[in-house]
């Protein structure tokens, strides 16, 4: 471990350019950590490119350096640059970044997804960490890097959003230790940050959520909650794709539900977001369609229109549930 951390440090300090990569539909973790790393790159006088396949949601516009955040397609990775992949389980699934190890691009892969495919030259994967922020916080400690206020803000946003504001099962005493440290260093106001992220909704988003809740169905004797949204729902509400962030967690808040699935029409296919409670495994479900994620939160893309995707999902989840419940109930 010490050796890996030292190798990462060596690569970061040696490279003149840092390319910081976020995952598709970027969330607070990938963007918060990205923002902190942009700040660090600037402090170290590095050139920095921060990019991802989708645009950053407006709620994160208070993060340092967000004005530099670019569409991946417009980026040419300079020779010799280090690429820092943040919170990305699999590079081919999330991005089509063209890289060449021949010109000396080294990928540093920092992640907490248990199914990470170790695509980097250097892979720092810690499944027990609540967020990538928790991992990078330790990295800074190891390197003796003193944190700026902007970095503390980025890491705090990452930590808070990935742990569902310290209430998901990934929240540990270490998560709170890191949070306490960040609050102190950044002189942060947790209430203000919460308001910025969660109490900052557009009316279009609230309308979309209303429609989603109206469409919600219970199956498997109330254990599975499924909800679907079509392109038409978005159009009629005037909502954006990013407006579904955190919606699936609300479905899991229904009494006795063990599996919550949100299906969203995407082109000719359907994007599925899955959340579970014990003993159900979200990743096991997502993997049926080559998706992935965590045990409690995962996602995948199904190459069928929403209505068909819904039927297949119901069938597959039903099979898994029948197997699990046989052993547990
Ligand atoms: Mn994450």
TrEMBL record:
<dbReference type="InterPro" id="IPR001667">
    <property type="entry name" value="DDH_dom"/>
</dbReference>
<dbReference type="InterPro" id="IPR003156">
    <property type="entry name" value="DHHA1_dom"/>
</dbReference>
<dbReference type="Pfam" id="PF01368">
    <property type="entry name" value="DHH"/>
</dbReference>
<feature type="domain" description="DHHA1">
    <location>
        <begin position="238"/>
        <end position="304"/>
    </location>
</feature>
<dbReference type="GO" id="GO:0003676">
    <property type="term" value="F:nucleic acid binding"/>
</dbReference>
<dbReference type="InterPro" id="IPR051319">
    <property type="entry name" value="Oligoribo/pAp-PDE_c-di-AMP_PDE"/>
</dbReference>
<dbReference type="InterPro" id="IPR038763">
    <property type="entry name" value="DHH_sf"/>
</dbReference>
<dbReference type="Pfam" id="PF02272">
    <property type="entry name" value="DHHA1"/>
</dbReference>
<feature type="domain" description="DDH">
    <location>
        <begin position="19"/>
        <end position="156"/>
    </location>
</feature>
<protein>
    <submittedName>
        <fullName>Bifunctional oligoribonuclease/PAP phosphatase NrnA</fullName>
    </submittedName>
</protein>
């Amino acid at each position: 471990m010490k050796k890996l951390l030292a190798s990462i440090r060596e690569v970061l300090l040696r490279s003149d350019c840092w390319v910081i990569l976020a995952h598709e539909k970027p969330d607070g973790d990938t963007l918060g950590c990205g923002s902190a790393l942009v700040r660090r790159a600037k402090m170290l006088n590095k050139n920095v490119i921060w990019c991802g396949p989708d645009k950053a949601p407006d709620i994160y516009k208070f993060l340092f350096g967000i004005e530099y955040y670019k569409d991946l397609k417009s980026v040419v990775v300079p020779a010799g640059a280090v690429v820092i992949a943040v919170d990305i389980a699999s590079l081919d699934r999330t991005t089509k970044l063209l890289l060449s190890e021949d010109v000396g691009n080294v990928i540093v892969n920092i992640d907490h997804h248990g199914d990470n495919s170790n695509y980097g030259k250097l892979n720092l994967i810690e499944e027990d960490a609540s967020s990538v922020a928790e991992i990078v916080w330790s990295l800074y400690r190891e390197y003796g890097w003193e944190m700026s206020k902007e970095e503390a803000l980025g890491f705090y946003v990452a930590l808070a959003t990935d742990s569902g504001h310290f209430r998901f099962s990934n929240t540990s005493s270490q998560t709170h230790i890191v949070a306490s440290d960040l609050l102190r260093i950044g002189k942060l106001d947790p209430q203000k940050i919460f308001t910025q992220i969660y109490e900052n909704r557009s009316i279009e988003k609230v309308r979309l959520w209303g429609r989603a809740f109206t469409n919600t169905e219970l199956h498997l004797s109330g254990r599975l909650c499924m909800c679907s949204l079509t392109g038409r729902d978005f159009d009629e509400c005037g909502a954006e794709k990013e407006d579904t962030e955190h919606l699936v967690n609300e479905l899991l808040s229904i009494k006795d539900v063990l599996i919550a699935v949100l299906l969203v029409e995407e082109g000719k296919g359907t994007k599925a977001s899955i959340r579970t409670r014990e003993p159900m495994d979200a990743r096991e479900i997502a993997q049926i369609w080559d998706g992935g994620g965590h045990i409690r939160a995962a996602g995948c893309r199904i190459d069928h229109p929403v209505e068909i995707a819904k039927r297949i999902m119901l069938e597959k989840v039903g099979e898994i549930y029948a197997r699990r419940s046989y052993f547990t109930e």
